[in-house]
Amino acid sequence: MNAANGGNWQRTNDPKLKSWIESANAPGSDFPIQNLPFGIFSDSSNASRRVGVAIGDSIVDLDVLAREGLVSFDAQLFAQASLNAFIATGKEQWRAIRVRLSALLDANNPELRDNAAIRQKALIAQADARLHLPVDIPGYTDFYSSREHATNVGSMFRDPKNALMPNWLEIPIGYNGRASSVVVSGTPVRRPNGQIKLPDSERPIFGACRKLDIELEMGFIVGAGSALGDPISCERAEDHIFGLVLLNDWSARDIQQWEYVPLGPFNSKGFATTISPWIVTLDALEPFRCRQPEQSPQPLPYLQHAGEHAFDIQLEVDLRTQSESEAQTISRTNFRQMYWTMAQQLAHHTSGGCNVRVGDLMGSGTISGATPDSCGSLLESTWNGQRPLQLTSGQQRAFIEDGDELILRGWCQGDGYRVGFGACAGQVLPAREVV
Questions:
Q1: 226 and 300 share a domain?
Q2: Is residue 103 in a domain?
Q3: How much is the mean pLDDT over the chain?
Q4: pLDDT (tens digit, 9 = 90+) per residue, 225-254?
Q5: Ranges for the Fumarylacetoacetase-like C-terminal domain (predicted)?
């Protein structure tokens, strides 16, 4: 397919578009024809991992479409256990395949709709599929970019009048995390063991985390790498972003409190980070672009960019206890509130010469609003356990208990449709026995 076919990509966001896959047209569907997120899947009839696109309650098998000649891409790009090879083809090709899929799935196009033989092979029910980690992740970086979250934590553990450290309003604060422990939604998370310093003890103990927490975040996937020593400009940073996922950066708060001085989190964050399986492209999110919060003082020149660089993504956290069948929403917030933008994060990350690679994962940092019910962590919403959450079941939660399942959800609300991310879920297993 000629990359120029990606030139009319804006039409893929037309709110009037409908698909011949009826489930995609339901107002509450995360995956309408305007979305078309990419992921990796397998199913009972074909255990091979391959590239798919979510539409309604189905998955379009791109390997089948390529082998049948319905998309003019090398089928080998889609017969892969990760999206890295496809992502590496570049932005124009991402757009070209999305434009072609939008046309094939359009309610008025009979090309695939009326071809029963190919349709039967190319469409897989999501209920019958297994979703896998969508990318091989060479590196993972976690930022700390919500002013509300940083203020809450600074007030809790330092001086409320000086909650933000002097550098916070100047630098998108971040640290390099542990890429090897990033897992896909649905993977159980083992409560970590670690060193914990109890208030009345002279020395630490080693044992199971007692203050297990979540961090509600968005993550972006690097789509175009950079050379060592070559910074990415803030104005062009979004050209290096393939798309976004939901991200839960599980956190062991008691282990973190003891280990973070002087170099920051280590084992308290390295045991698991969960991401959602579908990567929603920046092109699909374009209609929901909005103005980022005002920044004062004005950032240094290398962190400045014109225009709007935030995205109106509504976010929720649900908690399901082991004894309850229904989950309860414990937080609602919005990605648009982040003080530092993704472009600024990537520009700062590479400003010293650090190179990035296709598939690198960048976490936004915990996303919190101004009220307790909009906090992105239990650390904040319970104020370090002092004000436990009251669940509708009558139970309380200061932090996460064994058997609890945490589910993150996010979506952009359009005119009669939503562009969603699916679920980012994980259930907590007991810690390994200390020997």
A1: yes
A2: yes
A3: 96
A4: 999 999 999 999 999 999 999 999 999 999
A5: 140-425
Whole-number pLDDT of residue 434:
81
Q: Is the domain of 72 the same as that of 166? A: no
Q: Using alpha carbons only, what angle is made at residue 193 by residues 190 and 198, rounded to the nearest 5 degrees?
A: 135
In the chain, how many domains are there? 2
Question: Do residues 254 and 210 lie in contact, with contact meaning Cβ atoms separated by under 8 Å?
Answer: yes
Choose one of 70, 101, 132: the last residue of a domain.
132
pLDDT at 340 over 60: yes
SS percent in the chain: helix, strand, coil, step 5: 25, 30, 45
Rounded CA-CA distance 417/38 in Å is: 19
The whole-number average pLDDT for the span 318-326 is 95
Total count of residues recorded for the chain: 435
269 is in an annotated binding site: yes
Question: Looking at the predicted structure, is the pLDDT value of residue 65 above 60?
Answer: yes
Question: Does 336 show up as a binding residue in the annotation?
Answer: no
* Buried-state track 288-320, b at ≥16 Cβ within 10 A, e below 16: bbeebeebeeebeeebebeeebbbbbbbbbbbb
* CATH number of the domain bearing residue 35: 2.30.30.230
Domain boundary among 132, 161, 196: 132
**Which residues participate in catalysis according to the annotation?**
149
Task: For residue 205, give its domain range.
Answer: 140-429
Q: Is 260 annotated as a binding residue?
A: yes
Q: Taking the C-alpha atoms of 147, 151, 152 and 158 in order, what is their torsion angle to the nearest 10 degrees?
A: 150
DSSP class of 339? S
pLDDT in tens, 37-48: 999 999 999 999
Residue 435 in any domain: the answer is: no
CB 322 within 8 A of CB 74: no
Contact present, 280 and 421 (Cβ < 8 Å) = yes
What is the residue whose two structure tokens read 């079941």?
393
171 and 111 in a single domain? The answer is: no
pLDDT band at 1 (very low <50, low <70, confident <90, very high): very low
Q: Is residue 270 domain-resident?
A: yes
Instruction: Confirm or deny that 382 is annotated as ligand binding.
Output: no
The one-letter code for the residue type at 378 is L
142 in a known ligand binding site? yes
Q: Are residues 7 and 33 in the same domain?
A: yes
pTM of this prediction?
0.96
